[in-house]
Design goal:
single chain; 175 residues; mainly alpha; three-stranded antiparallel sheet; 4 helices; 77% helix; 9% strand
């Protein structure tokens, strides 16, 4: 390594100061640029975080709405099943009561008169050559050739239930 001549250090002092100033200015510019880039990166990260939160919030709300719709549909189906089961139960109770009342008609003092009227009805429907007999379940049955008629009390009760089915359905609608 060679040594500088005497007095060169003093002569080089302005160069050294200029180099130090330039280095400090370069460092300041580099630091300012780094800060600016850091702020840009931080702003972009904040914007992306806000977008992610907004998307998550929107997707969460949509998922909650979908869950609410599905839950509501399940509740409506369960309620409908419950209503239908109760209607079926009530209908079976009604049917059982009507059938019981039909069986009770045999104990009514007017049963012989009812039996005559049912026999006359069978004769009218099948003709005078019909064979009409009392049903063991109450009422009558009749045949004429290949034609057959069932005017037994249970059959008449079932027919009455069928004929009044619309009226029975209105009971459910009124509730």
């Amino acid at each position: 390594m060679t040594r500088l001549p005497r007095g060169a250090e003093t002569a080089l002092e302005p160069v050294r100061r200029a180099l130090d100033r330039e280095a400090a200015q370069n460092a300041a510019r580099t630091e300012a640029e780094a800060r600016r880039q850091a702020e840009e990166i931080l702003a972009a990260a904040r914007a992306e975080a806000a977008d992610i939160r907004a998307t998550a919030s929107r997707e969460g709300a949509e998922a909650a709405r979908a869950d609410a719709v599905a839950s509501s549909a399940r509740a409506r189906r369960a309620a409908r099943r419950s209503i239908l089961a109760e209607q079926e139960h009530l209908h079976s109770l009604l049917t059982a009561e009507v059938m019981q009342q039909a069986r009770e008609i045999r104990r009514d003092p007017r049963y012989p008169q009812i039996l005559r009227r049912l026999t006359a009805q069978a004769d009218r429907l099948l003709g005078p050559m019909a064979s009409v007999t009392e049903s063991p379940r109450g009422g009558v049955t009749g045949t004429a050739g290949s034609r057959r008629i069932d005017l037994s009390l249970p059959a008449l009760a079932e027919q009455a239930l069928e004929e009044n089915a619309r009226e029975v359905r209105r009971l459910w609608e009124d509730v």
